[in-house]
Each structure stands twice: as C-alpha cells, then as structure tokens.
C-alpha cells in the first residue's frame, strides 16, 4: 500500500508542477502582452525587452499561485482515474454507499476544500519546524532568512505525502479499492 501512495504522490507532484508552471507562464505572458499592447506597442529595443521581462517575472508568482490552486482542484479529479499497482482511489457519495463514476469537478469540490484546509495546516507546521531549526543555526541573522516561495512550494509538495493518505483514512467519501 505504501508504494501505491508513493506512486500516486509522484504522479500528482509531477502533474501539479507542470500544470502550475505552464499555466503561470501562460497567464504571466498574457498579462505582459496585454500591458505591452495597451501601452502602445513600442519598438522592441533592448530596454523594452528588458522591461517586458521584468513585467513577466513580476506577474509569474501570482499567476503561478492561481495555477497551483486550479491545478489542485483538477489534479484531485485526475487522481480518481489513476490505477497504480492494482489500486485506485474511489469517490463515494455523501452517504458512503455508492461509487461516483465518472467523477466530475463538482463532485470533488467539497473534498478539495477539506484537502486544501488540511494542507495549509501541514504547511504551517512545516514552516514552524523550519523556523525552529533555523533559529538553532541562526547566529546574528533573521530566523526566516532562508524562507522563499521555493521552500514554500517544497513544503506544499511534501505536505501532500501526509494529506493524501490522511484524506483516504479520515474522509468517508474516499476509499482505496482494487482496479
């Protein structure tokens, strides 16, 4: 069963990473193109290209975050269609009696909210543990000097190692079955 969760997490981590980065780049590029054309489409000199790159870099982080939230919702739906090692996740109705098939986004919305809430708490615990470890090693510098969006993303990925199996154990709508 452990290999099932590891395979499922690996699939999810790769999918969410690719989806969020690609969608973040596309959204940031669309915003950059809109700003470029809205401001009059100046000639593409080195200064203009440098400014456009700065705008793209500025908009990537918020666009990546939006892509990450959308990707979490869409990836949760995709997890119910993956058969790995003879097991798969099954989504049951609220009374826990019948399997929902095909699984739609609206079916996973309630589950996604619960998963997001638990994920935020696990990430908060990871950040606190990281700050505690950093405070032991921090001599004369800020405790949170190590913290960046990249660490937060790694914490997000590793929180799924905890929250995916926890979701199947604690939520009566999700069970692991044979496929």
Q: Any overview of this molecule?
A:
- This protein has 179 residues and is mainly alpha-helical.
- It has four helices and two strands; from the N terminus they run ααβααβ.
- It has helices spanning 2-38, 46-79, 105-137, 149-170, and strands at residues 87-91, 174-178.
- A two-stranded antiparallel ribbon has the order 1-2.
- Helix 1 (2-38) crosses helix 4 and helix 2 crosses helix 3 (105-137).
- It is flat and about 65 Å long.
- The mean pLDDT is 85.
Global morphology: flat
Largest sheet: 2 strands, antiparallel
- Walk across the major sheet and give the strand order: 1-2
Figure out the total of helices: 4
Rounded to an integer in angstroms, the radius of gyration calculated over CA atoms is: 20 Å
Question: Element order, helices and strands?
Answer: HHEHHE
Which oligomeric form is depicted? single chain
Nearest-integer average pLDDT: 85
Strand percentage? 5-15%
Helix and strand content put the structural class at mainly alpha
In total, how many beta strands?
A: 2
Summarize the structure.
By secondary structure, this protein is mainly α. It has helices at residues 2-38, 46-79, 105-137, 149-170; strands at 87-91, 174-178. Helix content is 70%, strand content 6%.
